[in-house]
Amino acid sequence: MSFIDLLSLDFMQRALVAALLTGLAAPAIGTFIVQRRLALLGDGIGHVAVTGVALGLLTGASPTWSAIVVAVLGAVLMEVIRERGHTNGDVALALLFYGGLAGGVLITGIAGQGAATLQAYLFGSLNSISFADVVFTAILAAVVLVLTLGLSPQLFAVASDQDFARVAGLRVRGYNLLIAVLAAVSITVAMRTVGLLLVSALMVVPVATSQQLARSFRATFVGAMLVGCVASVGGLLLSAALSFRVDVAPGPTIVLMALAMFTATWPIGVWLRRRSRLMAPFPEVSAAPHRSTDQHPHEHGKDCGHPAVPHADHVDYVHDGHRHAPHGEHYDEH
Amino acid sequence: MTSPDTSVPVVLDRVSVAIGGRPILRDVDLTVHAGDMVTLLGPNGSGKSTLVRALTGLLPVARGEVRLFGTPLDDFGDWQRIGFVPQRSTATGGVPATVREVVASGRVGRRRLLRPTSAADRSAVESALEVVGLSDRASHGVSQLSGGQQQRVLIARALAGEPDLLVLDEPTAGVDLPNQQALADALRQLKERGATIVLVAHEIGPMMPLIDRTVVMRDGWVAYDGPPLTQEVASHTHHHHDHDVPGGHDHAPHVSSPFDWERGNPG
Ligand SMILES: Nc1ncnc2c1ncn2[C@@H]1O[C@H](COP(=O)(O)OP(=O)(O)OP(=O)(O)O)[C@@H](O)[C@H]1O
Ligand SMILES: [Mg+2]
Composition bias, kind Basic and acidic residues: at what positions (chain A) (predicted)? Predict the structure, then answer.
């Protein structure tokens, strides 16, 4: 069986659709979570959802449904604990984190299911995705996308400055809960492809990648969704291609793919930021003393290799930390 | 108190505020009339921000009542009429955003859900950027700006909402004199349009000619409420002035230090 044959298989097509939707939805809500500086929120919810899956296995209910219910409850609980602010938000998150994972493993054992069953949910599994799952994933992903795109001005205001948003008349608590619930929903959406333990990576890593190159919130948002799609579809195909030789779960492959994209854009981002700082025009300041440079070894120009930065009506050449402005035959220190 | 008058932007009626059970504001009475600019002065920790946060509904009131435009705070719904510049707030979040995006978020109170940006939104944002002199940096990342420039972004964000009542908590902290002057000009324009302004400040500087009234806070109560004072004079005010009744009965606790300032002195 070749790689192309593999793509024509039903379960593979289902997995691709699920991966694409996941790659869109998770970074969309992830952008607002990162904006709120709650990058690890997704992890907390993901761990709580493990208990949800286990409860599904125990009771014979659909693990997807039980996961979504428990994840939403966990997200709301985290939001409440954070808002009450009496315990450190971090600690509250950690408590749910460990409780969720321990509870999940314990209950799975009680349900008489082995680690293998749980593993499909922890790290994603291609052939566990049914047609009903795809439909379910599509509906949830659509809900997440419509709400994050449609409410982005409101969510942006709340995520950047809660006090300001409240005085502007927004129901801040409602929007905070919405963000938490949407995060829980996208986590259950991503459960089948990436797995609960790694799902949060798909909310955070594409955003981190995208903000290397973007300067605006909107560009970061769109870029993160793009990176998310490329990483999840690409990672899925890669893991399928590799599966002829070794047994690789799609989740880790997708996450490593996203991290590879981050690693690739990081130096570019560093360079871009450095350049934009370097090339920002110098402010106009009157009454600076006139000083000319010492003996100047060469003539500044287009190809001298020193950055030419606008300064009022002329340019300054940045030379060894000095600003040289042409003045007749010599250069002035600006 | 008489029946609520919808034209009075701010009324605080014997307001007490506690934070974590500890009383911070005690029996504060304050009325700000439409079109007035009132400055709140007072040392660090005297309760200026607490007062401002109580009147914007950010802190619950333990006793007394706050009315905005004649409506008790709990029933108040016209939040798009209020503009707010929080103290020491930061314009940056975990994700990069441009100056224009942050300023545009000031329109959020006037936007309907799930609607695209209107032309009115855009022009309000552009004119707010103009006012704080950041038009040429509108597409720069906020995190690349200096602290004072970021402060101006927050002021523009509040101005973008075209508020009828603008509440600013130390908007000029870290802002240089030319830009304080620019802010003063902006507030003058806003005032000419009939807006009411409540300004918390430590330095008044170029705002002085705009000010109609000064309120000095001290240790959680109003120590002075009357004609404009400069910061220097206000810092010598240890006298609880009881609502324009010269020599009137003063039942507030007195601070033991001798007061060396009396209302009516040149200030
Ligand atoms: N979150 C809080 N928790 C407990 N006490 C607080 C809190 N915020 C303020 N306080 C207390 O309330 C009092 C008034 O603080 P407030 O912030 O209103 O002062 P301020 O006049 O705005 O001072 P500044 O000039 O420093 O801004 C202070 O004594 C402070 O200790
Ligand atoms: Mg303050």
Answer: 291-312
